[in-house]
Predict the 3D structure of the following.
Amino acid sequence: MIEHSAFSRAIFFLLCIVFSLPIFSQGYKVTGMVTDAKTQETLIGVSLQVKEKPTIGAITDSRGWYDLTLPAGTHTLVVNYLGYNEKEINIRLIDKNIRQHIALSQSSIELEEVVITSERVDANVSDPQVGVTKMEIAQLNKLPVLMGERDVIKSLELMPGVRTAGEGSTGFFVRGGTSDQNMVMLDNVSVYNASHLMGFFSTFNSDVIRDVALYKGPIPAQYGERLSAILDVQQRNGDMQDYKLSGGIGLISSKLNVEGPIQKGKSSFLLGARRTYADAIARMSGVEKAADAYLYFYDLNMKLYFALTEKDQLSVSGYLGRDKMIMKDFADMGWGNAFANIKWTHTMNSKWLLSTSLQYNRYSYDYGIEMGMDLKGDAKISDYGLKQEYQYKPNANNMWRFGLQSIYHDIAPGDYELTSDYKDELNLLHRYSWENGLYVSNQLKLSDRLEVLYGLRLSAFSAMGKGEYYTLDEDKQVVDSTWYGAGKFVKTYFNLEPRLSAVYKLTNESSLKASYARTTQNMHLLTYTNQGTPFDRWTSSSNNIKPQISDQFTLGYYRNFANNRYEFSVEAYYKNMRNQIDYKDHAEFEAYDVIDTEILTGKGRAYGVEFMLRKRVGRLNGWIGYTLAKSEKKINGINENRWYNAYQDRTHDISVVGIYELSRKWTLSASWVYYTGNAITYPSGKYQIEGQNVMYYAERNGYRAPDYHRLDIGATLQLKKTARYESELAFSLYNAYGQRNAYMIRFKTNEDDPTKTSAYRYTLFTYVPSISWNFKF
């Protein structure tokens, strides 16, 4: 009893310290929003410093708000932001808190140095969040392009710890995780397939994007649902003062964006559209193979923004994207995403903020194949979501956020129709589930040197009817089944997910960071190939398939040099994973309801070290990244129950990126990548059955694809730039030295000598030049 009382007093004392921090900080609060004076777009990452005491300052948050606590008296705020004129604001504090909104005007002076981030210049050293990569759109626009398009995901794949799944792939790997273990979000809504044209383009139109953040270390508590990483992409609000038109025309694609006020100064709209037409150009050019083939995508972005009052903002955003692949008299296929999101934000007072979001998203695909018979099929995933979040900021050194998230999943794995001499139909059972999360987190600055970010997430996932669920024996065979009616609970999984991240500043230029995070995942992608396709099948946790669980530990050292012009970092991580999914030998997923029998589960581990050296400013800037890593699985029933390489395992990964401001008009860029070939399963031999050659496969992922390397170069020519109009030409050459990297390797029996087997390498691209004209007015 004494020990319990002592423990209770200790907890009570700790809570009193945390919540009473504003009591001990004497002074008055200065809060407000920083915006663009012309467009009234909120500005994120703006630096504010007190001129009389330069050690006191603040950075605007994701809403463009800042928060300062100052003693009574007169102060001068110095406000700085890249590309804007510096501004000084006189503040007089007497006997109350004040609100001071600040509008910055864009600078018309050409900068001699190119700063490629809008964060505070020492954020990599001082921020307690570990393993986060933020990318500026200005930086993205200077990198080499593929087929005339600047791409968010392709640019992130140049960062340590982030790896492309390969040319022609639909995903990316983060720290040894599979592609489905990453959640890709646009305006806080998940996107199940974030690619176009089998991975050559992403779903993100860079012209309508404001912020990009990739969390690959300890994922903050407000995020859940995935094991490895969160890619959070936010669209811009439209200009609330003037109408603007921008776009680009390239060899294979074009885009057009329009924005402007609905009611000047109070609301705005933003519309963006893209479409490719390479197939049409090929047909017009007389390419014989393109005569009966159609391959293109289109997407539409939309956002409406309303400043209802000084305290209330409402946004409505949406996206629609679709790919089409048609081969006349053979196949007709399509796939794409659609979503809508309504978000209301209310500032209750200087300390409290709440936001409410209603979401809907859908991913679907369909296909028709003619091969002497007609086969049609389609599948889709539909999500309906609600998110409620509160933020409480008692002072500049203490930030709380807590809330709840609820998503209802409806997976329709496939409806099929086969027509030959007769008509046959197969409709697979839907899988329904309800996913909920409660979370709380606190970012607390304990001293000038120590800052922590800790949180806890409670996830609850329920597999639900209507549908048939199966009971399996130890050999994964069905022994019984039970039918559940609509809305009936089949199985519910509860998981506590603690998150902790801390930074300790050794000096003003260096720091140590450490973190731990547990994450869970209940939506799983089943795929036969390393590259992945838009037609891969999604499933959810059930009475037989348990949630995937990961515990990740990270330790890093960060150092800046030469007044923050150079950054160096090294991060080591270790991930212990449970309930990892792989398929058994000769598994069948398509047109099959009982997929539980085709899946095996076990444990996994991933560990590695990431190095990065980056030059931030100057006419020449860029970075060098290197990752040394390992990713493995151990699943009973595979590889004789021994550890084996996960297919995303790559030992070495190197990226070198350079951007050079040759003159006021010309910017040159280049990127070079190298990585170890994917772990892959090749045949170990072959045998004959009734005169037919059959390949023999032994060890799962026991071989390596050839190593991959590629150089891309680019150049941008500024044609004209005035206050109301600008245009540029963007040139690029993808795979500049024509490396024939392996897309696929197939093994076939030699027709002249059946005792021999030949390996055939297939390559997608060698040299791919592109040119595009981009404009704004």
Remarks:
- Residues 740 and 763 are 6 Å apart (CA to CA).
- The chain has three domains: 18-104, 123-231, 232-776.
- Helices lie at 2-19, 21-24, 123-126, 137-140, 152-156, 278-284.
